[in-house]
Design a protein that fits this description.
Elements: E1 3-6, E2 11-14, E3 22-27, H1 38-56, E4 60-65, H2 72-81, H3 85-103, H4 118-130, E5 134-137, E6 140-143, H5 159-165, E7 180-185, E8 200-202, H6 204-216, E9 222-226, H7 230-244, E10 251-255, E11 258-260, E12 263-264, H8 275-281, H9 284-292, E13 300-301, H10 304-323, H11 348-359, H12 364-383, H13 387-403, H14 417-431, H15 435-447, E14 450-455, E15 458-463
Helix pairs in contact: 1-9, 2-3, 6-7, 9-10, 11-12, 12-13, 14-15
The structure holds one RNA strand.
RNA sequence: GGCGGCGUGGCCGAGUGGUUUAGGCAGGGGCCUGCAAAGCCCCGUACCCCGGUUCGAAUCCGGGCGCCGCCUCCA
Protein backbone atom coordinates (compact mmCIF):
# COMPACT_ATOMS: atom_id res chain seq x y z
CA UNK A 1 0.00 0.00 0.00
CA UNK A 2 1.57 3.22 -1.17
CA UNK A 3 1.55 6.07 1.29
CA UNK A 4 2.35 9.60 0.21
CA UNK A 5 2.53 12.94 1.92
CA UNK A 6 -0.64 14.90 1.22
CA UNK A 7 -0.37 18.66 1.49
CA UNK A 8 -4.07 18.99 2.18
CA UNK A 9 -3.79 17.05 5.42
CA UNK A 10 -0.12 17.78 6.04
CA UNK A 11 0.44 14.11 6.68
CA UNK A 12 1.60 10.93 5.04
CA UNK A 13 -1.44 8.86 4.25
CA UNK A 14 -2.44 5.97 2.01
CA UNK A 15 -3.23 6.82 -1.57
CA UNK A 16 -6.83 5.83 -2.01
CA UNK A 17 -7.71 5.57 -5.65
CA UNK A 18 -10.91 6.76 -7.24
CA UNK A 19 -11.06 3.52 -9.17
CA UNK A 20 -9.13 0.43 -8.16
CA UNK A 21 -6.23 -0.24 -10.47
CA UNK A 22 -6.42 3.12 -12.19
CA UNK A 23 -4.40 6.17 -11.26
CA UNK A 24 -5.12 9.60 -12.65
CA UNK A 25 -2.47 12.22 -12.06
CA UNK A 26 -1.98 15.80 -13.10
CA UNK A 27 1.34 17.56 -12.82
CA UNK A 28 1.64 21.26 -13.54
CA UNK A 29 3.94 21.71 -16.51
CA UNK A 30 6.06 24.60 -17.70
CA UNK A 31 5.29 28.00 -19.08
CA UNK A 32 7.32 27.92 -22.25
CA UNK A 33 9.01 31.30 -22.45
CA UNK A 34 12.55 30.21 -21.62
CA UNK A 35 14.80 27.17 -21.48
CA UNK A 36 14.02 24.71 -18.69
CA UNK A 37 16.06 24.99 -15.51
CA UNK A 38 17.17 22.50 -12.87
CA UNK A 39 13.97 22.96 -10.90
CA UNK A 40 11.95 21.82 -13.88
CA UNK A 41 14.27 18.88 -14.17
CA UNK A 42 13.70 17.92 -10.58
CA UNK A 43 9.94 18.01 -10.56
CA UNK A 44 9.68 16.12 -13.82
CA UNK A 45 12.03 13.47 -12.48
CA UNK A 46 10.20 13.20 -9.16
CA UNK A 47 6.84 12.70 -10.80
CA UNK A 48 8.29 10.48 -13.50
CA UNK A 49 9.60 8.25 -10.74
CA UNK A 50 6.24 8.26 -8.97
CA UNK A 51 4.53 7.40 -12.21
CA UNK A 52 6.98 4.61 -12.99
CA UNK A 53 6.55 3.17 -9.51
CA UNK A 54 2.78 3.12 -9.95
CA UNK A 55 3.29 1.36 -13.26
CA UNK A 56 5.71 -1.03 -11.60
CA UNK A 57 2.95 -1.87 -9.14
CA UNK A 58 0.85 -2.89 -12.09
CA UNK A 59 -1.51 0.07 -12.03
CA UNK A 60 -2.81 1.86 -15.08
CA UNK A 61 -1.63 5.45 -14.96
CA UNK A 62 -3.04 8.37 -16.85
CA UNK A 63 -0.52 11.15 -16.53
CA UNK A 64 -1.50 14.61 -17.69
CA UNK A 65 0.91 17.52 -17.74
CA UNK A 66 0.12 20.82 -19.37
CA UNK A 67 2.05 23.33 -21.41
CA UNK A 68 1.21 26.93 -20.58
CA UNK A 69 1.53 28.70 -23.90
CA UNK A 70 -0.13 31.99 -23.11
CA UNK A 71 0.88 34.23 -20.24
CA UNK A 72 2.46 37.58 -19.39
CA UNK A 73 6.00 36.28 -19.57
CA UNK A 74 5.45 34.90 -23.05
CA UNK A 75 3.97 38.16 -24.25
CA UNK A 76 6.87 40.05 -22.73
CA UNK A 77 9.41 37.75 -24.30
CA UNK A 78 7.81 38.01 -27.71
CA UNK A 79 7.78 41.79 -27.50
CA UNK A 80 11.42 41.90 -26.44
CA UNK A 81 12.51 39.66 -29.27
CA UNK A 82 10.24 41.19 -31.87
CA UNK A 83 8.52 37.98 -32.80
CA UNK A 84 5.19 36.33 -32.26
CA UNK A 85 4.07 34.53 -29.14
CA UNK A 86 3.76 31.36 -31.20
CA UNK A 87 7.37 31.54 -32.29
CA UNK A 88 8.46 31.91 -28.69
CA UNK A 89 6.39 29.04 -27.35
CA UNK A 90 7.33 26.78 -30.24
CA UNK A 91 11.03 27.25 -29.62
CA UNK A 92 10.89 26.69 -25.89
CA UNK A 93 8.44 23.86 -25.98
CA UNK A 94 10.79 22.04 -28.35
CA UNK A 95 13.63 22.67 -25.89
CA UNK A 96 11.43 21.34 -23.12
CA UNK A 97 10.79 17.99 -24.80
CA UNK A 98 14.39 17.66 -25.80
CA UNK A 99 15.38 18.03 -22.16
CA UNK A 100 12.69 15.58 -21.03
CA UNK A 101 13.94 12.98 -23.48
CA UNK A 102 17.52 13.48 -22.33
CA UNK A 103 16.39 12.93 -18.76
CA UNK A 104 14.53 9.80 -19.72
CA UNK A 105 11.21 11.22 -18.55
CA UNK A 106 8.26 9.35 -20.02
CA UNK A 107 6.03 11.49 -22.17
CA UNK A 108 2.72 12.36 -20.52
CA UNK A 109 -0.38 10.50 -21.58
CA UNK A 110 -1.77 13.88 -22.58
CA UNK A 111 -0.21 17.31 -22.89
CA UNK A 112 -2.94 19.92 -23.04
CA UNK A 113 -2.04 23.42 -24.18
CA UNK A 114 -3.77 26.34 -22.54
CA UNK A 115 -4.60 27.94 -25.87
CA UNK A 116 -6.56 24.86 -26.89
CA UNK A 117 -8.80 25.23 -23.86
CA UNK A 118 -9.76 28.87 -23.95
CA UNK A 119 -13.40 28.17 -24.83
CA UNK A 120 -13.77 25.93 -21.81
CA UNK A 121 -12.10 28.49 -19.63
CA UNK A 122 -14.46 31.18 -20.85
CA UNK A 123 -17.36 28.92 -19.95
CA UNK A 124 -15.95 28.31 -16.49
CA UNK A 125 -15.43 32.00 -15.81
CA UNK A 126 -18.94 32.78 -17.04
CA UNK A 127 -20.35 30.11 -14.81
CA UNK A 128 -18.43 31.35 -11.78
CA UNK A 129 -19.87 34.81 -12.44
CA UNK A 130 -23.35 33.38 -12.76
CA UNK A 131 -22.90 31.65 -9.45
CA UNK A 132 -21.97 34.95 -7.90
CA UNK A 133 -18.49 33.91 -6.81
CA UNK A 134 -16.67 35.91 -9.48
CA UNK A 135 -16.89 39.58 -10.28
CA UNK A 136 -15.67 42.03 -12.87
CA UNK A 137 -13.26 44.89 -12.39
CA UNK A 138 -11.90 47.33 -14.94
CA UNK A 139 -9.10 44.93 -15.89
CA UNK A 140 -10.73 41.56 -15.72
CA UNK A 141 -12.68 39.01 -13.77
CA UNK A 142 -11.73 37.88 -10.29
CA UNK A 143 -12.71 35.06 -7.99
CA UNK A 144 -14.13 36.12 -4.64
CA UNK A 145 -12.26 33.75 -2.37
CA UNK A 146 -14.36 34.65 0.66
CA UNK A 147 -17.21 32.84 -1.04
CA UNK A 148 -15.24 29.63 -1.34
CA UNK A 149 -15.62 27.29 1.62
CA UNK A 150 -12.36 26.02 2.96
CA UNK A 151 -10.16 28.43 1.06
CA UNK A 152 -6.63 28.18 2.44
CA UNK A 153 -6.53 24.41 2.81
CA UNK A 154 -3.27 24.01 0.96
CA UNK A 155 -1.65 27.18 2.24
CA UNK A 156 -1.42 25.59 5.65
CA UNK A 157 -1.92 28.80 7.51
CA UNK A 158 -4.79 31.00 8.67
CA UNK A 159 -6.47 33.15 6.06
CA UNK A 160 -5.92 36.24 8.17
CA UNK A 161 -2.20 35.83 7.99
CA UNK A 162 -2.40 35.35 4.25
CA UNK A 163 -4.39 38.53 3.95
CA UNK A 164 -1.98 40.37 6.16
CA UNK A 165 0.93 39.25 4.06
CA UNK A 166 -0.70 39.79 0.69
CA UNK A 167 0.87 42.43 -1.41
CA UNK A 168 -1.06 45.65 -1.59
CA UNK A 169 -1.60 46.35 -5.24
CA UNK A 170 -1.99 49.70 -6.90
CA UNK A 171 -5.16 49.03 -8.79
CA UNK A 172 -7.28 47.72 -6.04
CA UNK A 173 -10.73 47.00 -7.09
CA UNK A 174 -10.37 43.56 -5.58
CA UNK A 175 -12.68 42.80 -2.72
CA UNK A 176 -9.99 40.87 -0.91
CA UNK A 177 -6.26 40.97 -1.49
CA UNK A 178 -6.46 37.21 -1.91
CA UNK A 179 -8.88 37.36 -4.83
CA UNK A 180 -7.20 36.25 -8.03
CA UNK A 181 -7.68 36.94 -11.69
CA UNK A 182 -9.63 34.46 -13.79
CA UNK A 183 -9.62 36.50 -16.95
CA UNK A 184 -7.40 39.37 -17.99
CA UNK A 185 -8.79 41.98 -20.36
CA UNK A 186 -6.46 42.40 -23.29
CA UNK A 187 -4.47 45.56 -23.74
CA UNK A 188 -4.02 46.76 -27.32
CA UNK A 189 -1.79 44.49 -29.36
CA UNK A 190 -1.95 41.58 -26.94
CA UNK A 191 -3.18 38.13 -27.87
CA UNK A 192 -6.85 37.87 -27.08
CA UNK A 193 -9.91 35.70 -27.25
CA UNK A 194 -13.51 36.85 -27.36
CA UNK A 195 -15.61 36.50 -24.23
CA UNK A 196 -18.93 37.83 -22.97
CA UNK A 197 -17.06 39.69 -20.27
CA UNK A 198 -14.61 41.31 -22.63
CA UNK A 199 -11.86 40.11 -24.98
CA UNK A 200 -8.79 38.94 -23.16
CA UNK A 201 -6.88 35.92 -22.00
CA UNK A 202 -7.23 33.40 -19.21
CA UNK A 203 -5.52 33.67 -15.86
CA UNK A 204 -2.96 31.03 -15.07
CA UNK A 205 -4.91 29.34 -12.30
CA UNK A 206 -7.86 28.74 -14.58
CA UNK A 207 -6.19 26.61 -17.21
CA UNK A 208 -5.07 23.83 -14.92
CA UNK A 209 -8.43 23.34 -13.27
CA UNK A 210 -10.19 23.20 -16.62
CA UNK A 211 -7.72 20.86 -18.29
CA UNK A 212 -7.30 18.52 -15.35
CA UNK A 213 -11.02 18.07 -14.86
CA UNK A 214 -11.60 17.70 -18.58
CA UNK A 215 -8.97 15.04 -19.12
CA UNK A 216 -9.10 13.23 -15.78
CA UNK A 217 -12.60 13.90 -14.55
CA UNK A 218 -13.93 14.89 -11.15
CA UNK A 219 -12.06 13.70 -8.10
CA UNK A 220 -8.91 12.56 -9.91
CA UNK A 221 -6.25 10.95 -7.78
CA UNK A 222 -3.05 12.93 -7.59
CA UNK A 223 -2.17 16.54 -8.28
CA UNK A 224 1.50 17.36 -8.19
CA UNK A 225 3.97 20.16 -8.60
CA UNK A 226 6.73 22.13 -6.94
CA UNK A 227 6.34 23.47 -3.42
CA UNK A 228 5.79 26.99 -4.61
CA UNK A 229 2.69 25.95 -6.47
CA UNK A 230 0.91 24.98 -3.25
CA UNK A 231 -0.11 28.52 -2.72
CA UNK A 232 -1.50 30.34 -4.49
CA UNK A 233 -1.60 28.30 -7.69
CA UNK A 234 -2.99 25.00 -6.46
CA UNK A 235 -5.09 26.68 -3.81
CA UNK A 236 -6.68 28.75 -6.53
CA UNK A 237 -7.25 25.86 -8.87
CA UNK A 238 -8.97 24.08 -6.06
CA UNK A 239 -11.03 27.14 -5.18
CA UNK A 240 -12.50 27.21 -8.67
CA UNK A 241 -13.41 23.55 -8.57
CA UNK A 242 -14.95 23.94 -5.12
CA UNK A 243 -16.91 26.96 -6.31
CA UNK A 244 -18.21 24.84 -9.15
CA UNK A 245 -19.17 22.12 -6.74
CA UNK A 246 -16.84 19.63 -8.39
CA UNK A 247 -14.62 17.28 -6.42
CA UNK A 248 -10.99 18.01 -7.21
CA UNK A 249 -7.72 16.24 -6.49
CA UNK A 250 -7.81 13.55 -3.83
CA UNK A 251 -4.14 13.81 -3.02
CA UNK A 252 -1.69 16.72 -3.26
CA UNK A 253 1.98 16.00 -3.73
CA UNK A 254 4.64 18.70 -3.72
CA UNK A 255 8.35 18.33 -4.26
CA UNK A 256 11.18 20.29 -2.65
CA UNK A 257 13.50 22.88 -4.09
CA UNK A 258 16.67 22.82 -5.99
CA UNK A 259 19.05 24.88 -3.92
CA UNK A 260 22.15 26.78 -4.93
CA UNK A 261 24.58 27.79 -2.20
CA UNK A 262 21.91 27.15 0.38
CA UNK A 263 19.36 29.38 -1.30
CA UNK A 264 16.31 28.49 -3.31
CA UNK A 265 17.11 28.50 -6.98
CA UNK A 266 14.58 30.65 -8.77
CA UNK A 267 14.12 32.87 -11.70
CA UNK A 268 13.39 35.87 -9.54
CA UNK A 269 16.67 35.42 -7.66
CA UNK A 270 18.50 35.06 -10.94
CA UNK A 271 20.52 32.11 -9.68
CA UNK A 272 18.98 29.44 -11.83
CA UNK A 273 20.94 26.99 -13.91
CA UNK A 274 19.79 25.85 -17.28
CA UNK A 275 18.78 22.22 -17.52
CA UNK A 276 19.48 22.35 -21.21
CA UNK A 277 23.07 23.37 -20.49
CA UNK A 278 23.52 20.67 -17.90
CA UNK A 279 22.25 17.98 -20.24
CA UNK A 280 24.54 19.17 -23.00
CA UNK A 281 27.52 18.46 -20.78
CA UNK A 282 26.51 15.66 -18.46
CA UNK A 283 24.78 12.31 -18.51
CA UNK A 284 21.11 12.91 -17.78
CA UNK A 285 21.14 9.75 -15.69
CA UNK A 286 23.45 11.46 -13.21
CA UNK A 287 20.82 14.08 -12.46
CA UNK A 288 18.21 11.39 -12.08
CA UNK A 289 20.40 9.51 -9.64
CA UNK A 290 21.07 12.71 -7.72
CA UNK A 291 17.33 13.27 -7.43
CA UNK A 292 16.73 9.65 -6.46
CA UNK A 293 19.29 9.74 -3.67
CA UNK A 294 17.46 12.43 -1.75
CA UNK A 295 13.89 12.49 -0.56
CA UNK A 296 11.54 14.25 -2.96
CA UNK A 297 10.39 16.72 -0.32
CA UNK A 298 13.88 17.70 0.79
CA UNK A 299 15.85 20.45 -0.82
CA UNK A 300 18.72 19.26 -3.02
CA UNK A 301 21.91 21.03 -3.78
CA UNK A 302 22.96 20.69 -7.38
CA UNK A 303 26.55 21.64 -8.05
CA UNK A 304 29.30 20.43 -10.31
CA UNK A 305 30.55 18.41 -7.34
CA UNK A 306 27.26 16.70 -6.52
CA UNK A 307 26.69 15.88 -10.18
CA UNK A 308 30.20 14.47 -10.47
CA UNK A 309 29.56 12.41 -7.35
CA UNK A 310 26.46 10.93 -8.94
CA UNK A 311 28.35 10.24 -12.17
CA UNK A 312 30.95 8.24 -10.26
CA UNK A 313 28.24 6.26 -8.52
CA UNK A 314 26.72 5.57 -11.92
CA UNK A 315 30.01 4.15 -13.16
CA UNK A 316 29.73 1.56 -10.42
CA UNK A 317 26.35 0.44 -11.75
CA UNK A 318 27.52 0.55 -15.33
CA UNK A 319 30.49 -1.60 -14.40
CA UNK A 320 28.07 -4.08 -12.95
CA UNK A 321 26.09 -4.07 -16.17
CA UNK A 322 29.29 -4.68 -18.09
CA UNK A 323 30.51 -7.47 -15.84
CA UNK A 324 27.20 -9.29 -16.10
CA UNK A 325 26.32 -8.26 -19.65
CA UNK A 326 23.03 -6.88 -18.40
CA UNK A 327 20.65 -5.68 -21.03
CA UNK A 328 19.15 -2.26 -20.43
CA UNK A 329 15.51 -2.94 -19.50
CA UNK A 330 14.64 0.53 -20.74
CA UNK A 331 16.26 0.15 -24.11
CA UNK A 332 12.93 0.60 -25.85
CA UNK A 333 12.13 3.73 -23.87
CA UNK A 334 9.42 2.02 -21.86
CA UNK A 335 9.03 1.16 -18.23
CA UNK A 336 9.25 -1.88 -15.99
CA UNK A 337 6.20 -3.72 -14.73
CA UNK A 338 6.47 -5.48 -11.40
CA UNK A 339 9.14 -8.09 -12.00
CA UNK A 340 7.66 -10.58 -9.56
CA UNK A 341 4.10 -10.36 -10.77
CA UNK A 342 5.22 -10.52 -14.35
CA UNK A 343 7.11 -13.69 -13.61
CA UNK A 344 10.59 -12.26 -14.05
CA UNK A 345 13.20 -14.06 -12.04
CA UNK A 346 14.28 -11.58 -9.39
CA UNK A 347 15.47 -11.72 -5.82
CA UNK A 348 12.20 -11.58 -3.87
CA UNK A 349 13.63 -10.15 -0.67
CA UNK A 350 15.31 -7.34 -2.57
CA UNK A 351 12.08 -6.56 -4.40
CA UNK A 352 10.25 -6.58 -1.09
CA UNK A 353 12.73 -4.16 0.43
CA UNK A 354 12.42 -1.95 -2.63
CA UNK A 355 8.66 -1.85 -2.36
CA UNK A 356 8.64 -1.19 1.35
CA UNK A 357 10.94 1.76 0.81
CA UNK A 358 8.89 3.28 -1.97
CA UNK A 359 5.57 2.60 -0.31
CA UNK A 360 6.81 4.75 2.54
CA UNK A 361 6.28 8.15 0.96
CA UNK A 362 8.43 7.29 -2.03
CA UNK A 363 11.70 6.82 -0.17
CA UNK A 364 13.85 6.61 -3.27
CA UNK A 365 17.01 7.09 -1.22
CA UNK A 366 16.39 3.82 0.62
CA UNK A 367 15.35 2.09 -2.59
CA UNK A 368 18.52 3.27 -4.29
CA UNK A 369 20.66 2.13 -1.38
CA UNK A 370 19.11 -1.31 -1.86
CA UNK A 371 20.18 -1.30 -5.50
CA UNK A 372 23.77 -0.53 -4.54
CA UNK A 373 23.65 -3.30 -1.96
CA UNK A 374 22.55 -5.67 -4.69
CA UNK A 375 25.48 -4.57 -6.79
CA UNK A 376 27.87 -5.42 -4.01
CA UNK A 377 26.19 -8.76 -3.43
CA UNK A 378 26.38 -9.58 -7.11
CA UNK A 379 30.08 -8.78 -7.33
CA UNK A 380 30.77 -10.51 -4.08
CA UNK A 381 28.95 -13.68 -5.10
CA UNK A 382 30.73 -13.68 -8.44
CA UNK A 383 34.10 -13.35 -6.73
CA UNK A 384 33.13 -16.31 -4.57
CA UNK A 385 32.21 -18.37 -7.61
CA UNK A 386 28.46 -18.35 -7.02
CA UNK A 387 27.50 -17.51 -10.56
CA UNK A 388 23.78 -18.13 -10.24
CA UNK A 389 23.44 -16.06 -7.09
CA UNK A 390 25.53 -13.32 -8.61
CA UNK A 391 23.46 -13.13 -11.73
CA UNK A 392 20.22 -13.05 -9.78
CA UNK A 393 21.43 -10.11 -7.71
CA UNK A 394 22.79 -8.27 -10.73
CA UNK A 395 19.64 -8.77 -12.75
CA UNK A 396 17.52 -7.62 -9.83
CA UNK A 397 19.63 -4.50 -9.45
CA UNK A 398 19.22 -3.61 -13.10
CA UNK A 399 15.48 -4.19 -13.12
CA UNK A 400 14.85 -2.22 -9.96
CA UNK A 401 17.01 0.64 -11.17
CA UNK A 402 15.07 0.62 -14.40
CA UNK A 403 11.83 0.66 -12.44
CA UNK A 404 12.96 4.08 -11.21
CA UNK A 405 13.79 5.09 -14.76
CA UNK A 406 17.51 4.67 -14.24
CA UNK A 407 19.03 2.80 -17.14
CA UNK A 408 21.97 0.69 -16.08
CA UNK A 409 24.03 -0.25 -19.05
CA UNK A 410 27.53 -0.95 -20.18
CA UNK A 411 27.45 2.41 -21.93
CA UNK A 412 30.38 1.38 -24.01
CA UNK A 413 31.13 3.32 -27.07
CA UNK A 414 32.40 0.77 -29.54
CA UNK A 415 36.15 1.19 -29.82
CA UNK A 416 37.46 2.36 -33.18
CA UNK A 417 39.53 -0.02 -35.29
CA UNK A 418 42.80 1.66 -34.44
CA UNK A 419 42.17 1.33 -30.70
CA UNK A 420 41.17 -2.28 -31.17
CA UNK A 421 44.40 -2.88 -33.04
CA UNK A 422 46.36 -1.34 -30.18
CA UNK A 423 44.47 -3.54 -27.74
CA UNK A 424 45.31 -6.61 -29.80
CA UNK A 425 48.95 -5.57 -29.90
CA UNK A 426 48.88 -5.18 -26.15
CA UNK A 427 47.46 -8.67 -25.77
CA UNK A 428 50.31 -10.00 -27.86
CA UNK A 429 52.82 -8.13 -25.70
CA UNK A 430 51.27 -9.52 -22.56
CA UNK A 431 51.29 -13.02 -23.97
CA UNK A 432 54.97 -12.54 -24.60
CA UNK A 433 55.36 -11.19 -21.07
CA UNK A 434 56.66 -7.95 -22.50
CA UNK A 435 55.28 -5.86 -19.64
CA UNK A 436 57.06 -2.68 -20.65
CA UNK A 437 55.42 -2.75 -24.07
CA UNK A 438 52.05 -3.65 -22.57
CA UNK A 439 52.20 -0.72 -20.16
CA UNK A 440 53.25 1.56 -22.95
CA UNK A 441 50.23 0.55 -25.00
CA UNK A 442 47.98 1.03 -22.01
CA UNK A 443 49.27 4.57 -21.73
CA UNK A 444 48.61 5.17 -25.41
CA UNK A 445 45.07 3.83 -25.12
CA UNK A 446 44.54 5.85 -22.01
CA UNK A 447 45.46 8.98 -23.90
CA UNK A 448 42.89 8.03 -26.49
CA UNK A 449 40.28 8.12 -23.74
CA UNK A 450 40.01 4.44 -22.87
CA UNK A 451 40.15 2.81 -19.50
CA UNK A 452 42.11 -0.39 -19.99
CA UNK A 453 41.28 -3.51 -18.06
CA UNK A 454 42.61 -7.01 -18.33
CA UNK A 455 39.68 -9.33 -18.73
CA UNK A 456 39.76 -13.07 -19.14
CA UNK A 457 39.51 -12.63 -22.87
CA UNK A 458 42.24 -10.03 -22.98
CA UNK A 459 42.27 -6.27 -23.02
CA UNK A 460 38.91 -4.64 -22.41
CA UNK A 461 38.34 -1.02 -23.33
CA UNK A 462 35.76 1.27 -21.89
CA UNK A 463 35.23 4.98 -22.12
CA UNK A 464 36.57 7.03 -19.28
C1' G B 1 4.91 40.44 11.27
C1' G B 2 2.18 35.44 10.47
C1' C B 3 3.10 30.27 9.27
C1' G B 4 6.37 26.21 8.26
C1' G B 5 10.97 23.45 7.60
C1' C B 6 16.01 22.29 8.49
C1' G B 7 21.01 21.75 11.33
C1' U B 8 23.92 13.93 10.61
C1' G B 9 30.94 11.41 10.08
C1' G B 10 36.01 14.94 4.67
C1' C B 11 31.70 15.82 0.99
C1' C B 12 26.61 14.56 -0.77
C1' G B 13 22.59 12.47 1.61
C1' A B 14 18.80 8.79 4.15
C1' G B 15 16.90 7.21 8.66
C1' U B 16 15.65 6.14 13.64
C1' G B 17 13.76 5.88 21.07
C1' G B 18 17.91 0.82 22.47
C1' U B 19 18.85 -4.47 19.23
C1' U B 20 21.75 -4.93 12.07
C1' U B 21 25.17 -1.45 8.42
C1' A B 22 21.76 3.61 5.32
C1' G B 23 23.84 4.32 0.47
C1' G B 24 27.22 6.96 -2.74
C1' C B 25 31.73 9.86 -3.46
C1' A B 26 36.56 10.97 -1.61
C1' G B 27 40.58 8.99 1.81
C1' G B 28 43.60 5.00 4.46
C1' G B 29 44.89 -0.39 4.98
C1' G B 30 44.46 -5.35 2.86
C1' C B 31 43.14 -9.34 -0.93
C1' C B 32 43.34 -10.08 -6.16
C1' U B 33 46.79 -8.50 -10.46
C1' G B 34 53.15 -9.04 -14.09
C1' C B 35 51.79 -3.86 -12.65
C1' A B 36 47.13 -1.78 -12.87
C1' A B 37 41.86 -1.27 -13.44
C1' A B 38 37.42 -3.44 -11.92
C1' G B 39 35.78 -6.16 -7.74
C1' C B 40 35.82 -7.80 -2.58
C1' C B 41 37.14 -7.15 2.85
C1' C B 42 38.44 -3.72 6.93
C1' C B 43 38.71 1.50 8.87
C1' G B 44 36.74 6.96 10.42
C1' U B 45 33.51 5.00 16.35
C1' A B 46 28.43 11.07 12.94
C1' C B 47 23.94 13.20 14.45
C1' C B 48 24.23 22.35 16.26
C1' C B 49 24.30 23.98 21.87
C1' C B 50 21.92 23.68 26.83
C1' G B 51 18.35 21.60 29.89
C1' G B 52 14.31 17.91 30.66
C1' U B 53 11.35 13.13 30.03
C1' U B 54 13.14 7.92 29.98
C1' C B 55 16.19 2.13 32.41
C1' G B 56 18.10 4.26 27.67
C1' A B 57 17.82 10.03 22.91
C1' A B 58 21.15 11.75 17.73
C1' U B 59 15.76 10.19 17.48
C1' C B 60 10.45 12.82 22.28
C1' C B 61 9.67 17.82 25.08
C1' G B 62 11.43 22.91 26.33
C1' G B 63 14.92 26.85 25.61
C1' G B 64 18.99 28.87 22.71
C1' C B 65 22.00 29.63 18.30
C1' G B 66 22.38 29.25 13.03
C1' C B 67 20.25 28.53 8.20
C1' C B 68 16.18 28.25 4.75
C1' G B 69 11.26 28.63 2.75
C1' C B 70 5.99 30.27 2.06
C1' C B 71 2.72 34.52 2.65
C1' U B 72 4.38 37.92 -4.43
C1' C B 73 5.53 35.84 -10.99
C1' C B 74 8.33 31.23 -9.93
C1' A B 75 8.94 23.91 -10.36
Amino acid sequence: MLRLHDTATASVRPVELREPGQVSMYVCGPTVYDYPHLGHGRFTLVFDVLRRYLLFLGLDVTYVSNITDIDDNIIKRAAEEGRSEEEVTEEYEAAWWEAMDALGVLRPTATPHATDYVDDMVSLVGDLMARGVAYETSDGVYLDVDKVPGYGLLAGQPLDSLRAGARVEGNDEKRSPLDFVLWKRAKPGEPQWAAPFGAGRPGWHTECVVMSLDLLGDGFDIHGGGQDLKFPHHENERAQAVAEGRPFARHWVHNGWVVVDGEKMSKSLGNFTSLTDLLAQRDGRAYRLLVLRSHYRSPIEVTAATIADAEEALVRLDNLARRFSLADPLADGGYVVDGVGAGADLDPSAVERFRLALDDDLDTAAATAGIFDLARRANSAMDAGDEAGAELAARTAAVLAAALGLAVRPADVAPDDESLALAAERDAARAARDWARADELRAVLSERGWAVEDGQAGTVLRRR
